[in-house]
Amino acid sequence: MRRPPTRRTAMTTRHRIAAGTLALGLSIASITVPPASADIPPPEAGWTLTFGDDFTGGAGTPPSPDWIVDTGTSYPGGPANWGTGEIQTYTGDPANLAHDGNGNLRITPLRDDAGNWTSARIETQRADFKAAEGGALRIEARLQVPNTTGEAALGYWPAFWALGSPYRGNYWNWPGIGEFDVMENVNGKNETHGVLHCDVSPGGSCNETEGLGGSRPCPGETCQAGFHTYRFEWDRTGETEELRWYVDGEQFHSVSEAQISPEGWANMTSHEGFFLLLNVAMGGAFPDKDAGFATPTAATEPGHPMLVDYVAVYNR
């Protein structure tokens, strides 16, 4: 992914390594530099950083207590297979979920000798992320999706998204409580998807179960080959509220309040707020539909992680 446009002025790890190498008269080519990580960008004028995690924990350590680690194949009493048909079991095992020691959180799908898949899914403790009346909300992450393509990538479904707070403890009120898919990527394609789920299912003004979505290739290097910054904005500053999706600062999708039924919009926006999620699913409705047949297959390669550099929430 591209580096954020604004950074703190302190030297990055890459710069410090390079400076030390030059001072010693050594060849920079002899140094192995870890994947680039960035500080959480400071808020732009008029914005406030509401939440942030730059995943600087030691190698092998779990996420901070700001996150809940989901485990198993469903919420207690909720839809099976997390409601999507995905086939993996989520765990908190460091092999599936841990800091990499280079400023990233690593979520790694694995397959055992019997063909069973495991992976990881986390969600914020906080569930109050919301645009204030007359204000705006920005949800952002800098991450690299699993670096695998072709048949080896069939079934991979990494995502960064948000669910309405009333989902917790109910688990059967989707999509009325709202879902903002900031970034979805399937089957190793160079394509990021932004989707809104809301209202009623099937059908409704959000066209469920498909949702209202847009997509585009990642700018510059592919989504798989590098870090990119994925952003969602909920803008309540105008007469009509609007939702917008971006990759590397380039807008590729929007949904206006005027497109949604008044009841559907109210149900999605009148509750406490949203919580954020990061996960890598294997198989399920989205990758299966995209591939045209059941995934993953025998050719799917385990062990390709999603790397998350930071997650940030800003309010204006």
From TrEMBL:
<dbReference type="GO" id="GO:0005975">
    <property type="term" value="P:carbohydrate metabolic process"/>
</dbReference>
<protein>
    <submittedName>
        <fullName>Family 16 glycosylhydrolase</fullName>
    </submittedName>
</protein>
<feature type="signal peptide">
    <location>
        <begin position="1"/>
        <end position="38"/>
    </location>
</feature>
<dbReference type="InterPro" id="IPR013320">
    <property type="entry name" value="ConA-like_dom_sf"/>
</dbReference>
<keyword id="KW-0732">Signal</keyword>
<comment type="similarity">
    <text>Belongs to the glycosyl hydrolase 16 family.</text>
</comment>
<dbReference type="InterPro" id="IPR000757">
    <property type="entry name" value="Beta-glucanase-like"/>
</dbReference>
<feature type="domain" description="GH16">
    <location>
        <begin position="35"/>
        <end position="316"/>
    </location>
</feature>
<dbReference type="InterPro" id="IPR050546">
    <property type="entry name" value="Glycosyl_Hydrlase_16"/>
</dbReference>
<dbReference type="GO" id="GO:0004553">
    <property type="term" value="F:hydrolase activity, hydrolyzing O-glycosyl compounds"/>
</dbReference>
<keyword id="KW-0378">Hydrolase</keyword>
<dbReference type="Pfam" id="PF26113">
    <property type="entry name" value="GH16_XgeA"/>
</dbReference>
